[in-house]
Specification:
- It is a single chain.
- This protein is an alpha+beta fold.
- The strands form four sheets. Strands 5, 6, 7, 8, 9, 10, 11, 12 and 13 form a nine-stranded mixed sheet that branches.
- The longest helix is centred in the first third of the chain and has 33 residues.
- It is globular and about 120 Å long.
Length: 658
Amino acid sequence: MYCSIPVAQFHLQRLHFRATFWLSPKKGSPPPKPVRGSPPSKVYQDGLSQPIEHDENEKIPIAEPVTACATEEAVPNGVQEDLPLPSGKPVVPSKPELPYVPPPEQPPPPPDLPPPHVEEGAETGDSAAAHTIPQEPPALPVKRKAYPHDKSYYMCKELLSTERTYRTDLEVLTVLLREAINECKEPTYDIFRRLLSLLDPVFDSHCLLMKELEHRLASWEGRPGSQPKSAAHNKVGDVFLQKLNFSAYREYQNNVNGLIIGLEEAYKNSKPFEKFCREYETRKECYLPLHMFIIKPVQRLLHYMLLLESMLKYYGPEHEDRDDLEAALASVRDLLDSRREARQRVENYIKLVEIQLDLGGIENIVETRRQFVREGCLQKFSKKGYQQRMFFLFSDMLIYANRTSQPYLQFKVHGQLPVKGMIVEETPESKMAVPHCFALYNGSRMINVAASCEEDKYKWIEDINRVISDMKTGPESENYLPKLPQVTLNSLPGEEHDREGSANESAEAREKSFQQRGNTSTHVCWHRNTSIGMRDYSRAMSHQLSGYLLRKFKNSNGWQKLWVVFTNFCLFFYKTFNEDAPLASLPVLGYTISTPEPVDSIQKDLVFKLQFKNHVYFFRAESEYLFTRWMEVVGSATQNSARTRLFSRMDSYFDAGY
């Protein structure tokens, strides 16, 4: 006996048929678990399911009426109908339940990512996840500036970078100094009027040169809005010939000696002028002594010569810019050769002025015929043992002093030893029980000193022996140079003047003066226990560099981009090249320069390392050429234990006269 199937029951069976068709497992897969509440069924190879036949004698309950809310479609009230199934067999009605709804299909993968890769022959379903090989999304391309890789491009970039620093230095005199003079209530000083009249044409020439260099480099890089590339976009020789005012530089170079000497004389003779200069040097933009800014145009000519020589050496004889570069180099060399001796005298005079400001208790250090040779820190033997002293070697005298607590960080002279009749003798270490010792004799006086290292010891011995030899072959008159006054420890001349000056100065002025004078080579040598000679000083005049570097401290994680300027044995840090005053400074005297070691864990290229004891800094350049230049320039002012004795080389560039 078969029971009739209502229309609602038919729709339930149709839903079950659809679910069975879409959820049927593939061939060879285990049968799926039966759905709770549904009648048992057999699974055939075609993936369809049919109900199981029942016994005729079994009592079958009559189906309960089904409401329209339990079905997908509404059924008219009281209408029931017998409809055959696809198999043609009746089905025992059961208590109607909610239909089984299959889980929603997974959304397709994003269009920009490939679908997950599945191993060939792996199972699908729940067990397939174990065989899925995860794939990382493709890395997005990193946007990098497509700068040219030609070495000549970075040579021109070095030229433009140093030109921007040169502009900032000139503005300290042409703009800031002029403003300070206009604000000053005192009458305008003649020495400054003369300085500005000579410097204004040089500054105008520099502005034209830098503007054209910026256009050439922008065209070389292909920046938006720049001029289209042409055959002249990578040439700089014609820029020097057209924009550089050689006559203005010649006039300035011929008068720079008189400017420096006149400034020092006005500084001594006029207290208001001395006060004005001292207050001006405490400004944050004036990061160097005033006379160092005055000599900047002469130093710039040395930079031009070195850069033009490097370009000519790299270009070769067939380059299109060679003729203009050779003509520009010949003009620059003519300017330098005409005033070579005068330039050396002014460099020596500036160094004597700097030492005179650092020394208290002695006068008349500044003398045009006196030559500076070496300054540095040595350990002098006394009744209390070896004590740190600052030594100054001149062409006629050796002076040693000690650091004082004066507000201007001066050194107080303790004694002096004439060079004439001096004898130098190396002292065995076994005798003095201190390494790197040597003795100085002059008549009945003897001084035992010890250097910080063997290299520094031989530098002192070589320079002292050379000065003694020059004294023997020089003028025989005893009045070759005016004798310095004898100094005693109980009464030092100039001490009362220092106290009076310190009382009149404000605390803020003393603090600024402390920061400004703390970067001079004399004070750095005292703190770093090292020494420098006149050849170091002359080399620093020409080895100047500026540009962007990435800086990293020893224990920091990230790199900081800074505009770095190297001059006067010191690194000055700016945020950008448009900044007027440096954020910080780092004197490099006493530091060693090298490349990072594996223990430093620096996973970057083009990185050099500066270290002094536990102070470590890392700097990263943007190209191989600039990395080499920074290593060369900064290395000229640092110590390197792997190099030979620098001052024993006869092929030094500055031995040729530059």
